[in-house]
Specification:
Two copies of one chain form a homodimer. Chain A is mainly alpha-helical. Chain A folds into two domains: 48 residues, Orthogonal Bundle (Arc Repressor Mutant, subunit A); 143 residues. Chain A is 79% helix and 0% strand. Chain A is built from eleven helices and no strands. The relative contact order of chain A is 0.10. Chain A binds a DNA duplex through helix 3.
Chain lengths: 202, 202
DNA sequence: AAATGGTTTAACCAAATAGTTAAAATAAAT
DNA sequence: ATTTATTTTAACTATTTGGTTAAACCATTT
């Protein structure tokens, strides 16, 4: 008895921490055990193999992202609302967890087959998003851009700076982390203004 | 005698192939040797360790990107020219080497210290870019956006779809690679139109 | 043809690492 | 108190993998 549920959570959290920063190949079971404050044997007692543990972690991270995306759609009736809440949500998330997108993208790249099942089991109703985007793209006051292109643009503008933080800090901000943080603070507002300037007529 | 120069090129090419797809941790010296059509001993004979080989490969990939970026700046006198040639250049590059950005970003993330030296030795004169961007941001016909934000936006819009191709194919294009390819074909034009719509007054 | 120096091979070594086992310890439930 | 499930310890195995060694090979030079 003693713990069990608590321990499982502790392990998942520790595994998330290590996998997210080091990736599947770079992560060590010993380091996960140390981070969780337990030993390796117990780690294998709970999750039989590294792969199984990784799958749990990746699924939880991914499901989390999708759940939040879904929440965003639910409350949006216009394209402005959608963009505003999407960008706000992701900035809030990524400021405290900036390593998540790089992790997800790298692991999907490593084994693209996992994503198929993940999307199936994600329960995300894409139709709702498509319907909203399509409806809004018909508006008189909005330029006739391809809605998919615009959607990818909003996602790119939001997520890329986090994925590329290393290169941006080194290349553009001369290694000055504070300048980069300041850039990120202003980024959200910039995205909203920039996208509005692009898609609205007049 | 015999070969040597040819063999070295063969190894670098093979190493690039494997490192780019698997990352440093995921790459295996044996696989690099196999890909190069030689054996592991010869691999170590040419490049003493995995790290040394990786450094060579990474440096060459990175230097290549920087060189092309530099070329872009050289021929640009206006912001329109800069954006046009930047986007064109990267689309041309990335269509045949779509894995490069994910690779670079992942490795910089894994060991951010490498980028400092790389940038030093890259010979990129950032001042030229800054001068151009700053000069152009003063133009009467252009909205007063923060030029750094705009620059990051152009980079994000261009590169992110390649970094996130796996998730975009799975999530947005339902696993249909052809739809994604089509999306990429239209992406360049979209970026140019979208950015122009955003930054020009009236 | 003999010497030279780069090239190739196969067998090998050492370290790291995922995973196992079995026994002891601990704490809660009965 | 006994049982039961969880946790710890520590030693161990098997495999992978980066790296080494030494001998053989081959092309060119002398």
């Amino acid at each position: 008895m003693v713990n069990n549920e608590n321990t499982e959570i502790k392990i998942i959290e520790a595994a998330k921490e290590v996998f997210v920063h080091k990736g599947f190949e770079g992560a060590r079971m010993q380091e996960i055990a140390d981070t969780a404050g337990i030993n390796k044997a117990l780690l294998h007692y709970y999750f039989r193999s590294k792969s199984k543990l990784f799958d749990k972690v990746f699924h939880s991270v991914f499901a989390d992202l999708v759940a939040k995306l879904y929440k965003t759609v639910g409350i949006s009736n216009t394209i402005e609302e959608f963009i505003e809440s999407f960008v706000s949500l992701y900035f809030e998330e990524l400021k405290s967890k900036p390593y998540i997108p790089q992790f997800v993208l790298h692991e999907i790249n490593r084994d693209p087959s996992v994503i198929v099942n993940l999307i199936k089991s994600s329960g995300l109703d894409k139709q709702k998003i498509i319907a909203l985007i399509h409806k809004e793209s018909q508006r008189e006051d909005i330029k006739q851009f391809d809605p998919v292109q615009v959607m990818v643009t909003v996602i790119s503008m939001t997520i890329f700076p986090f994925v590329a933080s290393g290169i941006l800090v080194g290349f553009i901000f001369d290694g000055d982390q504070a300048s980069f943080d300041n850039f990120i603070d202003e980024r959200k507002q910039h995205i909203l203004e920039f996208v509005n300037a692009a898609i609205f007529k007049k």
